[in-house]
Amino acid sequence: xxxxxxxxxxxTTLYASDKVEIYASKLTSQNNIINAAGGVSxxxxxxxxxxxxxxxxxxxxxxxxxxxxxxxxxxxxxxLGKYAxxxxxxxxxLFRPFYMIDNKSDVWMSGAQGKANDAKIDIGSGVVSGxxxxxxxxxxEFSSSNYDTDSMWLNMYNMRLYIYDxxxxxTPYFGYSLDTTRRTGLLKPSVGISNNExxxxxxxxxxxxxxxxxxxxxPQIRTSRGSGLYTNFxxxxxxxxxGEIRMGYFKEKQAYFEKNNLQNNSHYGFNxxxxxxxxxxxxxxxxxxxxxxxYVDINHMNDVGYINLASSNTINQTTSKxxxxxxxxxxxxxxxxxxxxxxxxxxxxxxNNDNTLQKLPTLQYHYYLDTLLKDHLLYSLDVKSxxxxxxxxxxxxxxxxxxxxxxxxxLFDEFLNISYTxxxxxxxxxxxxxxxxxxxxxxxxxYARNYHxxxxxTQLTKRYENVSHVIxxxxxxxxxxxxxxxxxxxDESNYCSNLDNQSNLDYKSRCEFYxxxxxxxxxxxxxxxxxxxxxxxxxxxxxxxxxxxxSSAASRYGELENELDYKVTSWFSFYNNMFYNYDKNAFSKxxxxxxxNQYGVNLQLxxxxxxxxxxxxxxxxxxxxxxxxxxSAEYTYNRHYSFSALYNYDLETQExxxxxxxxxxxxxxxDFGIKYSENNRPVLTLNGASSSIYDKYVYVTxxxxxxxxxxxxxxxxxxxxxxxxxx
Length: 727
Known about the structure:
Layout: H1 2-14, E1 20-23, E2 26-30, E3 33-44, E4 47-57, E5 62-73, E6 77-87, E7 92-96, E8 98-102, E9 108-111, E10 114-117, E11 120-123, E12 126-129, E13 138-142, E14 144-148, E15 153-163, E16 166-177, E17 185-186, E18 190-194, E19 198-202, E20 205-210, E21 213-222, E22 226-238, E23 241-252, H2 254-259, E24 266-276, H3 279-284, E25 291-301, H4 305-308, E26 322-332, E27 336-347, E28 358-372, E29 377-389, E30 395-411, E31 416-432, E32 445-463, E33 467-485, H5 488-496, H6 507-511, E34 522-533, E35 538-549, E36 560-567, E37 572-581, E38 586-598, E39 601-611, E40 625-636, E41 641-650, E42 655-666, E43 670-684, E44 690-704, E45 717-726
Parallel strand pairs: 18-45
Antiparallel strand pairs: 1-3, 2-3, 3-4, 4-5, 5-6, 6-7, 6-8, 7-10, 8-9, 9-12, 10-11, 11-14, 12-13, 13-15, 14-15, 15-16, 17-20, 18-19, 19-21, 20-21, 21-22, 22-23, 23-24, 24-25, 25-26, 26-27, 27-28, 28-29, 29-30, 30-31, 31-32, 32-33, 33-34, 34-35, 35-36, 36-37, 37-38, 38-39, 39-40, 40-41, ...
């Protein structure tokens, strides 16, 4: 025991800055050589090392450990070996052979030897994997390697990737991180092959030099089609704001451009998103009491090819013919709201958008509901001005003012609630510009009206043993009072308010700025009921609404609406929303959705039928009728196997819009999946003609964990089958 104390004191005094503690059941000393045996334990910095025996040379300052060595560094990783040497003077550590397990990522590394100096570890030739060390599915062999225990970054040289014993990849250098810290480097590439686009390769390059921004470069090549570059820049400029800027450019090869009769031989665009939840205080330096917000979503591209070429994976990519750009700003207090909104529409199915109506900007002021006479009198104010403009033809500034004043009370001990509302509304239009293809001349003018609203409602609640039932009954009656119109409204009200004229060719150009809806002397009857379980979770919601008109005997009844949301069980639900039109003796809308999530099955089925009754709807006139079926299914057999399928079909045009079917096999250290997918996407051909291409893909997913992150729609290899183009 005395020898042990002397040895411990010697180490502590000699290396006061790097305290070393040695525990052993047997110690001997001779000629400056100290030997320890019988369960040796060494504590050095953040290392805890155990061995069968130890040998220390006072002259060289080297501590050698032998047999069954186990080293644990601050709980981050473990190192095993048969021999270890610690030079306390040079602060070096040597393990031979070297075997390390990272506790966080479960990645293990084996090498001929490992030499550590502070946080750096140099490893000789060896192998690394995230699989079970006994017969691992994948391994990476290297001639040399180094690992930084602080940054958890591993560099390997002359790396060979093996799937079992089959070599699949060689690279002179490969580096990756064992944690999720953002850092600069290469991300998982995407490769594919197509009969008409050739070999596809995209290599993401990730740059993250500072914590507040990162940049992703996405160069790609399609050997038979062309090449391009997409970029994605993300940033956080304050605690309450963040943004993202995407840009892309793709150049078509001349042979592909001519063969496919494309409108453009290059595709380019950009997307800007920004969200700031307190921009007034942040940018002005003042402390405003209210809340402010800024939302920016700007999108521009020369055609849909910019979207289609962003990646090879169409599963999580939506191609739309309509692109909307928005900038919204607001300032909100407890009593008032001020907002400004910019909207810009781009139709990708036409050559230019000179005649597309834009709202640049919309200004709004709203005074929130306030009360007088002990909450019996309620009033509010809303003013909205729209600057509707375009490059050619007529433009207008339309301003709406809406002032509702409500008088309310309750009767029969609050069993009956009644109210009366006087609605004051005015719209003013100021025109500018001239229609190129029309002789119509619009005069500035205003429209003003007043109408009355009477409402009576009651709500009944009854509690049962396991459920609570709530019933809400209401009747609302609107009665027109007076209206006054001048200029444009006096000229066009009779023509534009007649629904039968909507099929006329001149209706769109003549009435595109007329948005006044006539107030009908009508009653709106509504029945709503709820069922809640004993935990206050909703089981059933149903709403039944019927409008009855007293202005026109020819169209007495409006559309009957029924909405139902029924959670049959905790894993099965049904939703329905439908409208029945008495005049057409047909349903104008039927939407049904079934959801099931039980026994590893997640099933979603929905069907939408909608008839606009604008013109006689036929199978050759699909714009007037929507008849669409969507479905998706996922089945998790066990923790290893899962299957998925998707099918979307347009019943009106009898056209399959998209489908996919695939499976995924997951284990602790790797994922493997195959998915077959079809997608009908739009393209813009020569002379602005709009058509579509039906793509067929085979996606192969290979995820070597933890090197790669597993995701639902990730793919590594894409094979594109021959497609067909439709007009």
